[in-house]
Amino acid sequence: MLQVVNVAVRAVVIALVGFFTFATRSTGAGYEAVQIAAFAIAVPLIGSWTIAENSLGRGDRYEPLVPYGLGLISLICGAAYELPSGGPMLALCFMASLSAGRRLPPARAWIVPALGVAGVAAAGLLDHSGIWESIGYATVLLPPATVLGNNIRVHRVDAERSAELLAKAEHLREEQAQVATLQERARIAREIHDVLAHSLGALGLQIELIRAVLTDSGDVPHAVELLDQAHRMATNGLGETRQAVHALRGETLPLPDGLADLSVAHQRRHRAPVSFEVTGEPRPLPPDAGLAITRTAQEALVNTAKHAPHQPVAMRLDYTGDGTSLVVTSHLADGGRNGRDPGLSTVNSGYGLTGLRERLLLLRGTLSAGRRGGDWVVEATVPR
Q1: Which residue, of 121, 139, 172, is where some domain finishes?
Q2: How far from chain centre, in Å, is Cα 12?
Q3: In whole angstroms, what is the distance from residue 55 CA to residue 109 CA?
Q4: CA–CA separation, 85 vs 253, rounded Å?
Q5: What is the pLDDT of residues 195-234, one digit of tens each?
Q6: Are 123 and 259 members of one domain?
Q7: Distance from CA of residue 201 to its chain's centroid?
Q8: Element at 329 (helix H, strand E)
Q9: Residues with Cβ < 8 Å from 97, sequence gap 6 or more?
């Protein structure tokens, strides 16, 4: 749109200058011929300059000739301006100086108005009539035109840079949105994995026990009792799934209350004594940190039921100045003499440990699991 307006304005200026050039009669025919010749030379140069200027930025091979064309227009029209009826030619010098400021670096742009003033001075030396007045008019008009064009160029460059920065900012926002989406997907995947690993792991252990009771002793009443427990486990697993959904929405119980519920549920389900204590001053934790500690407790309890059934378990939640840590200590059935370590794997073939470590690493936390005498100790820590 701006290019169309620019071309239209130039066409109007050229038409007006041409009208005054051909319609006005000077006192000397020689002067008329010189003025018409100057106009005839300037118009094709202006047309070529306009075409080349509108192609800037598209690799036009004639772009380097634009400064020379502007300088030649300014020089010729400046000389024609000094003629008795050549006043309108100064408008073409003004256009060339304005365009030089818009398109050329300042050091080169000033050459164009200087050539215009030089053309006025050279023609004035030949005529010796009103030379200083003509030079004064040219000096007053042409340099300010270059200054105005330079200001337009600066504003255009700033606008282009602003548009580029806005495009980069928009692209960055899109990338951030994609990263946030991927992070949320990973978070949901970890939640689904951890809930299913815990619930299905415990249910798998219960089914194995029922199978052993039926095949080894044929104790149907005991198997029915165990089936009732398995049913309760499935119901509890559904409840844990709902809790996970609430957790994804940020609707979680205070961490001590949630761990206390896990302790009671494990003791009731597996008939193993579980102690739970809290040290330090409880404080709210970010949802991700609370979930990481909760999932660690669930994973540790499932592994305890699998590798050390009916053995006592001690859970301790420590609030310190540096962070929050959970320590789950389970007594090994044989005191650890058989050399077998329970690890942290459940029915998911070891992905429990990987998932927990990934979850804690995202929070700059740590996870450790290992033998301490006759106990197996799992410890998870998140910084404050």
Answers
A1: 172
A2: 48
A3: 19
A4: 93
A5: 666 677 777 888 888 888 888 887 888 888 888 878 877 7
A6: no
A7: 40
A8: strand 323-331
A9: 74, 112, 113, 116, 142, 143, 145, 146, 149
Torsion angle, CA of 281/282/285/287, rounded to 10 degrees? 170
Decide: 26 and 83 in contact? Cβ < 8 Å.
yes
Q: Is residue 380 part of a domain?
A: yes
Look at the block and give the residue holding tokens 């050390």. Answer: 308
Q: Are residues 284 and 383 in the same domain?
A: yes
Both tokens assigned to 260: 């206390």
Task: Name the DSSP letter for residue 284.
Answer: -
Q: Which residues contact 325 (CB under 8 A, 6 or more apart)?
A: 317, 318, 379, 380, 381, 382
Structural domains in the chain (count):
2
Query: Sign of the CA dihedral 70, 73, 79, 85?
Result: negative
Q: Please state, as a whole number, how many other Cβ atoms lie within 10 Å of the Cβ of residue 4.
A: 9
H-only helix segments in the chain: 2-23, 29-54, 66-81, 89-103, 106-109, 111-127, 131-212, 220-248, 255-270, 287-307, 351-362
In the DSSP assignment, the letter for residue 88 is T
Domain that holds residue 72: 2-172
Q: What is the pLDDT of residue 84?
A: 65
Closest CA to 352 of 232, 200, 205, 220: 200
- Residue finishing a domain among 126, 151, 172: 172
The sign of the CA dihedral 332, 337, 338, 339 is: positive
Q: What is the pLDDT of residue 77?
A: 75
Domain with residue 377: its CATH number is 3.30.565.10
Q: Is residue 320 part of a domain?
A: yes
Smallest CA-to-CA distance from 21 within 48, 5, 43 is with: 43
At residue 327, the 3 state secondary structure works out as strand
| Residue-level length of the chain | 384
- Does residue 30 belong to any structural domain of this protein? yes
| 9 and 145 housed in the same domain | yes
Same domain, 25 and 168: yes
23-70: pLDDT as tens digits:
665 545 555 666 677 777 777 777 776 666 666 554 456 566 667 777
Is residue 305 located within the same domain as residue 162? no
The letter for the amino acid at 186 is A
Verify that 157 and 266 share a domain, yes or no: no
